[in-house]
Specification:
There is one protein chain. By secondary structure, the chain is α+β, with helices and mostly antiparallel strands. Helix content is about 40%, strand content about 20%. The protein is built from 25 helices and 27 strands. The strands form seven sheets. Strands 1, 2, 3, 4, 5, 6, 9, 11 and 12 form a nine-stranded mixed sheet that branches. A five-stranded mixed sheet has the order 14-15-16-18-17, with helices on one face. Helix 4 runs parallel beside helix 12 and helix 18 packs parallel to helix 20. The termini are far apart. The mean pLDDT is about 95.
Length: about 850
């Protein structure tokens, strides 16, 4: 629609048919034309348009039929006006559409029920799928008020962003459900759904409601309670009241994303909202809290203040990622949630952004922006990590004050990156704009090389990549350096590295120094000082460095190994200092790195890697036990789970003996503790036969808990026997719901017993695989190309080039996957 046309209000009447999977609709748009125009262009996709009418003075007698044309290729509806109009007008469109099965737009989700209908229908509109449910101006900057009504069967429940205003009984067992108008908001935040829902209010804050399928109400109590806590945290921290009268947390069986922040009607995958005692693990419970907090943060960052363009999507997702962990940490500090943030977000972002095929957090103008396997680690994980770096630099008080100013100034409107920077600069009095522009608008990150010459520390920066890169980029880098002294004391300095190289004076009697204290900086460190690295290693062994800094040392070193700057043996030497490690962050990370090397390497170095991995995991498991303990920490439970899974996959006899006994007990009907269930199922696949496959599929089909189904799905990719794995993967492609079909495939791509045979299977079965949901299909491509594709890199590259010509939308995920293939091939070749 021309920029001179401003939508003001949409009135929608939606009448869904859950038997024929179709719906009819009427959209009445009130808008204003600043200048005379004789055509109106709306976004419209996969809708049958019956009639378009327009009026200017509000009288039905003056409704004028307008001819129209539909442009399916560009998802446009062009309405031709009888004469140019300006000022206020109303456009009324009658149309119809399909309730699709693609988890986008207005779509259906199958449910288990004893009575019809056997589906619900819900919406998912981000980034630009509102046009699949009604003609609109589908752009985040074109905000409007939405007034929704639905005509549904009387035995069903309708949900939208706001509370119900009226319910009117109609003929034939139908009813008209009308909702209150929404605040002014973007199209992608609209929600409506219908089904046999139950609604459960929180007892303390009745604004918080859980919406679920019948019989699941008791599974929503945990989520409702944390939703209330997160909402209270947001209102207090941002100093702006939540503007709606309700906040629904809605469990949806079929959902491609984790959750969606529709204003007042947040949707979730069932496993990310429902907590089932005796089935949901402690790790999964923490994930429920983190996702709820993420989506509630969006009620301010994204919903109240919305990006002007999709290139500013980081203003939504980076903040939701960061505060998703901050809210959880506030209420559950014992969970060590910031260590989990560094492990799952910062480490992921560093690995993704170390590719040559990367991009800036804020994409250049005109570039398509969507949440994909390629973009998510940058927009979510890197963006959140840069916010952590920023808050550490300007201080928590200035950070909070700047965010409050930003949200207040742009409430119910739209913002660009510079608006945020200006608010933070004003609150802190520091050059936030210079620093953030530096980090948000250019791709990549630096490696800081540190070299000591007596009492002078030389610090230099260059862009870090796994493969060669001659970039001359520099960053404004907040660098912290801690000096350690013979008496056990320490001193920390902070500087802003503005150029390629600078010198820093070290205090007299400095025996060792650590760069990036607390690991708030988003960069790697290379110590060109072997003696200093040796001393830091000794401090690791003596537990004299905090867990974050112990993680930083080994994570930086592994990055240098993958880039070819140091050999794998150096990491294994450093790993000797971690033999007494029990903390979640450094041991979880090191274990994953050793497992990655185990999958890729061959020969003696692989043997040594395996031996080191087994020693580390056995020491930790002996220390805190193979069985979960009721009083153990959250991160101990998470760490044990990971070590058991990797122990089963690498064939650790001590781990497999324990897990196999547990799996046999499972076959006999025993209940397995949720915190080791994943490891037990993995070991069942590794060491079990056809009976194990039959039992796991039987449990999968009988289970009514999505968390358990997902755990079983992942384990199905771990069979040691190739014929059994083929059967499991065939079952996956034929019988498993699309929303989790990717999980056994991704697990199989990391199965050491099958990795050399999987590429041929992938190619043979590709016609079935590519029918998956686009986002989930990308995950499979990203898993198979760098791993199983390593068996024959030339053939893999040829296949990918053909695939990209066939499906150009896969350009980014193919590029990053092929680069990872090249990194893995180089790693294997160097170490061979």
């Amino acid at each position: 629609m021309p920029a001179s046309i401003k939508p003001m209000e949409y009135k929608l009447t939606i009448e869904p048919d859950l038997y024929r999977f179709s719906f009819s609709g009427r959209m009445t748009l009130s808008a204003h034309a600043d200048q005379p125009t004789d055509t109106l262009t709306l976004d419209c996709a996969e809708l049958a348009i019956w009639q378009c009418r327009i009026q200017q003075n509000g009288s039905d007698e003056n409704l004028i039929d307008c001819p129209f044309t539909v442009d399916p290729a560009n998802t446009r509806l062009i309405i031709h006006l009888p004469e140019p109009l300006s000022g206020l007008f109303q456009l009324i469109i009658d149309y119809a559409g399909k309730i699709n099965d693609r988890m986008a737009g207005f779509y259906r989700s199958r449910i288990k029920t004893d009575k019809a209908p056997d589906h619900i229908a819900v919406t998912q509109f981000q980034e630009s799928d509102a046009r699949r449910a009604f003609p609109c101006v589908d752009h985040p900057a074109q905000k409007a008020v939405f007034t929704v009504e639905m005509i549904i069967d009387s035995n069903l429940t309708a949900i939208s962003n706001t509370d119900i205003q009226t319910i009117t009984n109609l003929e034939n067992g139908r009813q008209r459900v009308a909702f209150h108008p929404t605040p002014k908001m973007s199209t992608y935040l609209l929600f409506f759904g219908v089904g046999p829902f139950e609604i459960h209010e929180d007892a303390v804050d009745r604004r918080v409601r859980a919406v679920c399928l019948p019989g699941m109400g008791n599974q929503t109590e945990f989520g409702r309670e944390f939703g209330r806590k997160a909402l209270a945290y947001g209102e207090n921290y941002y100093a702006i009241d939540y503007p709606l009268t309700k906040m629904d947390l809605i469990a949806v069986p079929d959902f491609a994303f984790g959750a969606m922040e529709n204003w007042g009607a947040i949707t979730f995958r069932e496993n990310l909202l429902l907590n089932v005692p005796g089935v949901t693990s402690r790790e999964a419970a923490a994930r429920i809290c983190e996702v709820i907090a993420h989506e509630i943060t969006h009620q301010w960052f994204g919903n109240l203040v919305t990006p002007e363009e999709w290139k500013y999507l980081w203003l939504n997702e980076s903040f939701a990622t960061y505060f998703g962990y901050g809210m959880v940490d506030y209420h559950y500090p014992a969970w060590e949630i910031w260590d989990q943030f560094v492990r799952s977000q910062t480490e992921t972002a560093l690995s993704r952004d170390a590719l040559n095929e990367t991009f800036a957090i804020e994409m250049p103008g005109g570039a398509p922006v969507a949440i994909t396997t390629s973009t998510a680690p940058i927009i979510y994980s890197k963006g959140g990590s840069i916010l952590r770096q920023l808050e550490a630099w300007i201080g928590p008080d200035s950070f909070k004050a700047g965010l409050r100013r930003y949200l207040t100034d742009f409430a119910y409107g739209n913002a660009a990156s510079h608006h945020l920077w200006e608010s933070l600069s004003a609150a802190s009095g520091m050059p936030v704009a210079d620093l953030m522009r530096n980090w948000v608008t250019q791709p990549g990150f630096p490696v800081i090389t540190a070299e000591r010459k007596k009492n002078t520390l030389s610090l230099s920066q260059r862009r870090f990549t796994y493969l060669p890169n001659d970039s001359a980029q520099t960053w404004l880098v907040p660098v912290t350096v801690t000096s350690y002294f013979p008496d056990g004391k320490a001193d920390t300095q902070t500087i802003l590295l503005r150029k390629k190289q600078t010198d820093l004076a070290l205090p007299v009697n400095t025996t060792a120094y650590k760069v990036n204290t607390g690991q708030t900086g988003f960069y790697h460190v290379c110590y060109n000082d072997a003696d200093n690295l040796t001393r830091l290693g000794a401090m690791v062994a003596g537990q004299q460095l905090p867990p974050l800094d112990r993680w930083g040392l080994q994570n930086d070193l592994f990055a240098l190994v993958k880039s070819g700057l140091v050999p794998m043996a150096k990491l294994l030497d450093m790993a000797e200092n971690f033999l007494g490690e029990r903390a979640y962050l450094p041991l979880s990370s090191l274990d994953s790195q050793l497992f990655e090397a185990f999958l890729l390497l061959r020969g003696e170095i692989r043997t040594r890697t395996t031996r080191t991995a087994m020693t580390l995991m056995n020491g930790a498991l002996d220390a805190f036990g193979h069985h979960p303990a009721p009083d153990e920490s959250q991160t101990t439970a998470m760490l044990r789970d990971q070590l058991l899974v990797h122990g089963a996959l690498i064939g650790n006899p001590q781990t497999l003996d324990f897990l196999t006994d547990q799996f046999n007990a499972f076959l006999g009907g025993s209940i397995i503790a949720p915190d080791i269930f994943r490891g037990v199922m993995t070991a069942g696949a590794v060491s079990g036969g056809g009976t194990a496959l039959e039992a796991m599929i039987g449990r999968f089909e009988a289970s009514g808990v999505e968390h358990e189904r997902m755990t079983l799905a992942g384990a199905l990719g771990s069979f040691n026997s190739w014929p059994l794995l083929e059967q499991a993967l065939d079952y996956t492609l034929e019988k498993m719901p699309d929303r989790i079909r990717f999980m056994p495939l991704v697990a199989a791509a990391g199965n050491p017993a099958a990795v050399d045979r999987l590429w041929a299977w992938f190619v043979d079965n590709f016609p079935r695989i590519e029918r998956m949901h686009p986002l989930l299909f990308e995950r499979v491509v990203a898993a198979f190309v760098p791993g199983p594709g390593l068996q024959d890199p030339d053939r893999t590259r040829t296949f990918c080039n053909h695939l990209q010509r066939k499906q150009p939308r896969l350009k980014d995920v193919i590029a990053l996957s092929l680069e990872r293939l090249e990194i893995n091939a180089g790693f294997r070749q160097r170490e061979q």
